[in-house]
Specification:
Neuraminidase; mainly beta; 3 domains; 24 strands
């Protein structure tokens, strides 16, 4: 794969689109978790793209322009990926219709090629204003640092307090959450980032539904799993191993679990979960 759009957000690497060695473009999005050393599927781009301008800003992966194989043309469309909601939304179209532009947080796009028989390399530049909060400076809602700035004399030291809080809207599931405190200085000496982790235990009245979605060729990464209760619906995708899990209060039982993937017949099952225990439901999907 080449010419994909990649960027780091909150300690994870997100890559979207690109052109395969066989010449076809893709809409696929993948996320790499360096702590688990694994890739998993995320929501697909609205269109297939390669050679786009891209950057990370405001906690999103921004993609603009490039080649779309749907019409075999260069486009000026753009999209932003929000990893929290696992969704792509349109951003304003770029002024220039180019591919293989240079780009940076801002959102700046520099140069690029017009494509076609009369292709030209343009020295143009443009900017999408307001996108100045780059990549790793994204705020982590459950992490706080105090003080946020300080001045040290040569040879001196200071104590910085790092606190974590699971009582925030972003934390909806038990598990281990990871982030990093990034330290910036105005000296020529580098300072390593400080890894931070928070383990959230499930309430005593909760149970876990878990399982693997597989097909004729084995586990299915990126398969869609929808879990319905009498009061809410939860939709997510399986990880790189085809695995899924969700913790819920047992009062939500019984659960309706729907597992699906493009080109396969969906499977639906009803299960009950127990307090403090995992309930396993594996699904084997068959091609349509």
């Amino acid at each position: 794969m080449s010419w994909e759009a990649c960027g780091a957000i909150s300690g994870a690497l997100y890559c979207a689109g690109g052109e395969s060695t066989s010449g076809g473009a893709t809409r696929h999005t993948y996320v790499y978790d360096p702590h688990a050393d694994s890739w998993s599927r995320a929501a697909d781009l609205p269109i297939d793209l390669w050679g786009s301008g891209y950057t990370t800003a405001a906690g999103r992966l921004l993609v603009s322009g490039g080649v779309t194989e749907q019409n075999s043309v260069i486009t000026n469309q753009g999209f932003g990926f929000d990893p929290v909601s696992d969704t792509w939304t349109p951003i304003p179209n770029s002024n220039n219709t180019l591919y293989r532009s240079g780009s940076a947080c801002g959102f700046y796009k520099i140069g690029g090629n017009t494509g076609g028989e009369d292709a030209q390399n343009l020295g143009s530049s443009e900017v999408l204003p307001g996108m100045v909060d780059c990549g790793e400076t994204s705020h982590v809602s459950w992490l706080a640092v105090n003080p946020t700035t300080l001045t040290l004399a040569p040879g001196a030291s200071a104590r910085v307090t790092v606190t974590v809080d699971a009582n925030v809207p972003d934390i909806t599931q038990p598990g281990t959450y990871t982030a990093a405190a990034v330290i910036g200085t105005d000296t020529p000496y580098g300072v390593p980032t400080v890894p931070v982790s928070m383990t959230v235990n499930p309430p005593k009245t909760w149970g876990k539904i878990t399982g693997t979605v597989a097909g004729p060729s084995g586990p299915m990464p990126g398969a869609t799993v929808q879990i319905n209760t009498s009061t809410a619906h939860y939709t997510f995708r399986t990880d790189a191993s085809g695995h899924y899990q969700l913790w819920l209060d047992v009062r939500n039982s019984p659960l309706q679990v729907i597992c699906a993937n493009n080109g396969y017949q969906p499977q639906t099952a009803t299960v009950k979960i127990k307090k403090g225990e995992p309930t396993t439901l594996n699904s084997d999907l068959q091609k349509v």
